[in-house]
């Protein structure tokens, strides 16, 4: 048992670490493969402990098991790298796992071929000292790297919470404004078109007073879903006020944005919000403005907001923009 028990604990530690890492990265766990690898190593240990006591085959079996887990750790971390965040901690764990895996592979090759040998496990040969030193350093380094990955993912979650409006799932005002400033700087640098639409849910206070605040929240969520489904992936839409939203359209001019706004308004008209067993019909008013060279986001937003005010003054349920004649909209479906 003095041989089997420590090696079984090493195998369990490898399984526990690999399981935790895969779950942290949101990856499926290959339980059957892990079980087969551990069972094979355990059978070799039993055979070469009680049937034919030899040290080298036991070293080969456990080194092969560790090699498999280390390469699996490296593959999992490489696959789980974030697309738009710092990858330092992931590369650190990957490097440690790869070095450890290559070291174990070398140990397997040397002991399996007879180049290295040991009469007992802790025999102080040069090869044994080298491999044991590297083995002792591997797990603390992997643990440290994993802690860094956990910290990075916690920061990512907090940043996501701060940049997302909890009710609609759209960008928060702060996140949208920061993105808008970046877009204005990019437009100034590249001279490519940039268009802004500011919109407001019509008669939102009446919805709250008539149906309750829960219904008002349902309308905001409903609009967020429709906006996400209608707009392009690269169109940045955020909730900038109670019932006010704004959308940035990169590489689009106001005439194309007006068509998108009309499609979104038509979708809102045709798809009333379902809440509490009834439907709530609503519309929005919107203002569209093209970015002017050298203009900052505040001035850009104020011009689009003035166009929104024009749409509201013209009777709501419509979109106002450069060179657009405000016509009477089609009648809206009555609320059920």
UniProtKB/TrEMBL annotation:
The organism's place on the tree of life at top rank: Bacteria
Gene3D superfamilies associated with the record: 3.30.70.270
EC number(s) recorded for this UniProt protein: 2.7.7.65
Spans traversing the lipid bilayer: 6-21, 33-51, 57-78, 90-109, 129-150
InterPro entries xref list: Diguanylate_Cyclase (IPR050469), GGDEF_dom (IPR000160), Nucleotide_cyclase (IPR029787), Rev_trsase/Diguanyl_cyclase (IPR043128)
Keyword match Transmembrane helix: yes
Entry keyword set: Membrane, Transmembrane, Transmembrane helix
GO cellular component: plasma membrane
Gene Ontology biological process terms in this record: cell adhesion involved in single-species biofilm formation; negative regulation of bacterial-type flagellum-dependent cell motility
Domain called GGDEF: residue spans: 192-324
Keyword Transmembrane helix assigned: yes
Molecular functions per Gene Ontology: diguanylate cyclase activity
Name of this protein: diguanylate cyclase
Organism of provenance: Achromobacter insuavis AXX-A
């Amino acid at each position: 048992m003095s041989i089997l028990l420590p090696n079984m604990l090493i195998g369990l530690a490898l399984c526990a670490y690999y399981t935790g890492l895969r779950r942290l990265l949101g990856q499926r766990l290959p339980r059957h493969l892990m079980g087969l690898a551990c069972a094979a190593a355990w059978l070799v240990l039993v055979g070469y402990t009680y049937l034919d006591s030899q040290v080298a085959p036991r070293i080969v079996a456990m080194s092969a098991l560790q090699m498999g887990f280390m390469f699996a750790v490296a593959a999992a971390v490489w696959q789980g790298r974030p697309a738009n965040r710092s990858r330092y901690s992931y590369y650190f764990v990957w490097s440690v796992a790869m070095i450890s895996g290559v070291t174990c592979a070398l140990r397997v090759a040397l002991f399996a071929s007879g180049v290295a040998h040991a009469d007992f496990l802790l025999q102080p040969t040069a090869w044994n000292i080298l491999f044991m030193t590297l083995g002792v350093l591997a797990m603390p380094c992997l643990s440290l790297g994993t802690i860094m990955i956990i910290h990075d993912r916690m920061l990512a979650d907090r940043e996501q919470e701060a940049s997302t409006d909890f009710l609609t799932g759209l960008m928060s005002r702060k996140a949208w404004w920061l993105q808008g400033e970046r877009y204005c700087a990019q437009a100034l640098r590249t001279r490519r078109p940039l268009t802004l639409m500011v919109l407001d849910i019509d008669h939102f206070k009446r919805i709250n007073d008539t149906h309750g605040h829960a219904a008002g929240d349902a309308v905001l969520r409903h609009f967020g879903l429709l906006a996400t489904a209608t707009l392009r992936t690269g169109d940045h839409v955020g909730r900038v006020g109670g019932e006010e939203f704004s959308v940035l359209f990169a590489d689009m001019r106001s005439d194309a944005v007006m068509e998108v706004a009309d499609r979104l308004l038509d979708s809102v008209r045709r798809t009333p919000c379902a809440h509490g067993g009834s439907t709530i019909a609503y519309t929005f008013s919107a203002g569209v403005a093209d970015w002017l060279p050298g203009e900052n986001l505040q001035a850009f937003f104020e011009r689009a907001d003035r166009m929104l005010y024009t749409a509201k003054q013209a009777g709501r349920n419509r979109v106002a923009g450069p060179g657009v004649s405000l016509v009477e909209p089609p009648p809206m479906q009555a609320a059920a």
